Amino acid sequence: MKTVILGESGNLIEALLPLLKREERDYSGNLVVFPGRRPAHFLRKALAEQVKASFVPPSILSMDEFVDSIYEKMENQPRKRLESSDAVAILYALQKKAPKTLGGEGFVSPDAFFPIGLKLHRDIEELFIEGVSVERLKEVDALTMEGIPPLTRERLQDISFFYERFYQEVPAAGYCTRSSRYRSVSEAMRETTLADHPQVFFAGFFAFTRAEKEMVRKLLSWDKVSFLFRDGPGLEARLHELGIEVETRLGEGRGAPVIHFYQSPDSHGQVFSLRAVLEKRRKEGVTLDERSVIVLPSSEMLFPVFHQTLPIFQEESWNISLGYPLHRAPVYGFFNLLMELIASMDGDRIYGPDYLKFVLHPYTKNITFRENAEVTRILFHTIEEKLTSSRGRMFLALSEIEEDEGLFKMIVERISKEGIPATEMELRRHLREIHQRTIGKFLSFKNVRDFALRAMELVEFLFHRSTARLHPFFHPFTEALIQALDSLSRSLFGEMAFEKTTTYFTLFRRYILTCTTPFEGAPVKGVQVLGALETRVLSFERVFVLDVNEEVLPDTRKEDSFLPLPVREILGLPTYVDRDQLAAYSFDTLIRGAQEVHLFFVENDQKEKSRFIERLLWEKQKRDRVLRPEGYFHKVQYRVNLRNEAPEEVQKTPEIVAFLRQHLFSATALDTYLTCPLKFYYRYVLGLEKKEEVSGEIERTDIGKLVHSILSSYFGKRKGERLRPSDILLKEMDRWIEESFEGSYGRDLLGSTYLLRQQVKRHLFDFLNHYTLPLIREKAVTLLEVEYSINIPFEEFILTGRLDRVERRDEKIWIVDYKTSSNAEGLRIRFDKLDIGKRETWREAVGSLQLPFYLLLYSTSQGHEIEELEAAFLLLGKTVISRSIELPLFDSSEGKREKFETLQTVIFRLLREITDLSLPFYPVMDPKYACATCDFKYLCGTP
To answer: Which pLDDT band holds residue 728 (cuts at 50, 70, 90)?
Structure first.
């Protein structure tokens, strides 16, 4: 028996069992070769179930392992395997010697060349394994002068240069590549090569390279070798190319599978549907074991399935086997944040936002202190608060953090509350060690090998000193990363040295994009979670396939190659057509071999179902004589309720009222209550605040604080004096601005901070020239108070406030409040709309109670009548600064007392409302007034 074709629903593993010869329980005389490695586990398990005792298994190899096993026995052949990084290093050396650099001047540095070097390596390896000669490649442009653009012809000439010299350099350096091993084996293989095995089987193959075809033609002539194929679309054409005549056909096996289709609007719907189907099968008593497979053509679905679906099984009842991109692993995210931090440094100063991102990564903030990670979490979150409170300082030296006495006093106090004894010195030493073992190690490198070794040391430090090792999948991810770094350190890139530290980072990032984490759990145990490639040859009773969409199954993306389609066709290289045929064959054999199939796909304005599903639907429609296929779909739909429920009221308790009666009420607190009582409850009763972040952006509140500080410093020196034109000194204002910015942002200002300083200067110079000077020339102005704090009892309440500026203008005393905005409408009080008897009018009529509140504080504390006082906002955010930036509380003196008493009544009644036990904290009646910009909108449920 030379060749056997199984029916589409046949099981290759089961078909092999009766063909394997044995002496008692010894199968070692058999050699079985599969396309990949996974089927070996299933064959050994099937033999174990058949023998039901210990046995000597056959030799089971993947095609790559088969070629390598023969190659290793050949004499006078290079032994060192050329890794992809080594190949790129050789190609880069050739690039520097080339008469014309591939890709032009943009790819002359190693890091820039790396991605195109990988692509070039793939292309020339494909050319070599397909037996394309250099002369043949050079002839292509002559054969297709009209069909290939001039730029492409030049590129082919460049590839010819690399192709010819690469395979001269590689063996000369003692290396061999995958293609060179295949070529050598296909040329040198003889029947005696397999003398150790009386019987040899090649099972489950579909597509062959030219080197493999030469091997197959030789193998077909040897009596001991048999081929087992599984029928499927395109197989006969492939066998015809090899001249294979089928000697034996086995039956079709079981009937067609029952296929279910699940249409989802997004990927989440697929995962939820999969879970629901699996749970339903379990409730129905169906055993879900290694005869069931969840196929993930896209690795992006691994973690959603792991977190949302696999928890329905016990941990020992499922197994994952697929490749996962290493650049998506958390450990790479840790390194990426570290590299971003180093890249953003200004000399020896770190950029605050990037520093916090790095130290708050779970791997960093869980580095242990005396086997306790809580200390480090407290340490870094306290640093976060410290940097947030002074977030104007974007850049600072690590030593500033390490030597901040106030910071470490605060940390010791917090740690002591957790019952953990530690001194400031110990904590400072702990922080310095973390800085040195992470940031310090990555500041400079001797060469690529030094970079890789330092990165490996850092991984080891995380393993021993962080709780990261307890995180899911930490071990496979870090093992894959260490292997990749070790390979890079030993590669021909190892001795390369770069001037810029960031060049090492760029090279590392591009290298990691080529690396995967090979999940290889217990070989055959429980439900199998496999990638599409891992299902080759295998048969399952129940099949669940996610992402059956175009561009996934099949992968219809454009060829990532320097060789265009016409050239590939002339040279006889595989094209996207071959790739699609292989995908169709693998999918079809997987489906036909099952009893029950569940296919999940996304359909929306960006994704469409796979052509494979369309074909299955059409077959089913023809069989059922149905015109439209919609009835075959299980559609996943979300029930979306767009109605916002009104937030619930919060009833007051006697304890809340007692707390509020001791509370110091400010104008801001009353404005908050007037806007929304529920917001007042969150902010002033519960004490909740929006978490401030060091984002690198300058917040509006920071600008306001800065301007207030500058004006306070400038006018504070003139307190108690009458202002004269000679007091308005721009140089002095300039000095205060410079000192304030230096104190807040540091000496060397960059980017937006520098522009802000210039803008503040221009505005405050205009404020002095176009507002202050005209004012003091018109009126006699004496500064009475600057940043004046007042606390007074009012009825049974305590009122508090800080007045920016109090001045006497002629005979009147003015209370002035600075506003860095330009919006007058949000501050104005509309007396014509204010009806003291109608509570519902207050919110719309009163923009802010700040000025009347300040008048109440000042008049009560100083004993002034309201007729002696005035109050105004100064809108410093106006584009044009003049006397018009003044927004007075009262338009005229007429009716002033009556208006003030009305506002005083509003203040008093609001205070009564706040402390009234019978009145709950209720939400704002009309959300449009307050909810859009409220910090608590998600908490109360009205986003």
So the answer is: confident
